[in-house]
Specification:
This protein is an alpha/beta fold. The protein folds into 2 domains: about 110 residues, Rossmann fold (3-Layer(aba) Sandwich); about 110 residues, 3-Layer(aba) Sandwich (Rossmann fold). The strands form 2 sheets. It has a 4-stranded parallel β-sheet, sandwiched between helices. Helix 1 links the parallel strand 1 and strand 2. The radius of gyration is 17 Å and the shape is globular.
Length: about 240
């Protein structure tokens, strides 16, 4: 362990806020379990910028406003001695090229990281649950295709349903969100998939810890990659 000597990691959060809070808790838990953090100085230095961007998932007309807000925050944070950026939202990765263009500090590409982990675990056909924009822009399909992995996505009706699920989670409606998310998962589980990707950082807030299939939680993947960057140590 680096004993607090790593450069800070920065997280663009607030999209939504509960996912960002869970990410930070995951970082703390994993610092203890995988890097044996015990004293205060053992934990990573983390800068979380919770940014209340407009909901461009539901209304794509707001995308440019959200993009400008994020660009300004990245410029501000880039003045600090940060080792890397993480984005606590998969959908915002559609703006990753624009955000990376304005800073020399590297961003974690979450779909790429998840795809590598799926391949490492020898899965060749997986299901994807994500927001409508994440699915229609092919963020995960492209990353997984590069690794030779086939992706099964929900029907158009269920993709819209997932969009509503995410909005409910952000508003704090957990119970009905869980039921709907599981219903969509069941619909694609029947299509000969061997694993499921939660390609939206809100979904782990309502998805059960134990499921019939292996589940790749993108939020946990992000926490692990950020910690590896901070401690400069390969994952076990």
């Amino acid at each position: 362990m680096k004993n607090g000597q790593g450069q800070p990691i920065a997280i663009l959060g607030g999209m939504g806020p509960d996912a960002s809070a869970r990410l930070y808790q995951q970082i703390i838990n994993l610092a203890r379990s995988e890097y044996h953090a015990q004293a205060n100085h053992d934990y990573p230095e983390v800068i979380i910028h919770s940014i209340p961007v407009p909901d461009f998932i539901s209304d794509t007309r707001k995308k440019s406003v959200a993009e400008n807000m994020l660009i300004e925050r990245v410029k501000q944070l880039s003045k600090l001695p940060i080792s890397c950026f993480g984005i606590a939202c998969n959908t915002v990765h559609i703006l990753l090229p624009e955000l990376q263009r304005i800073t020399n500090i590297p961003f974690i590409d979450l779909p790429d990281e998840v795809a590598r982990l799926v391949k490492l675990n020898n899965h060749h056909r997986v299901g994807l649950l994500a927001t409508p924009i994440t699915i229609t822009t092919g963020l995960y399909q492209n990353a997984l295709s590069e690794e030779g992995i086939e992706v099964v996505t929900p029907t158009d009706t269920n993709i819209k349903r997932l969009g509503n699920v995410v909005k409910k989670i952000v508003s704090g409606d957990i119970v009905s969100s869980r039921e709907e998310a599981l219903a969509v998962a069941e619909s694609i589980k029947k299509q000969n998939i061997t694993a499921l990707i939660l390609g939206c950082t809100e979904l782990p807030l309502v998805f059960p810890k134990h499921y019939y299939l292996p589940v790749f939680d993108s939020l946990t993947v992000l926490a692990k990659v950020l910690l590896k960057r901070y401690y400069m140590k390969e994952e076990k």
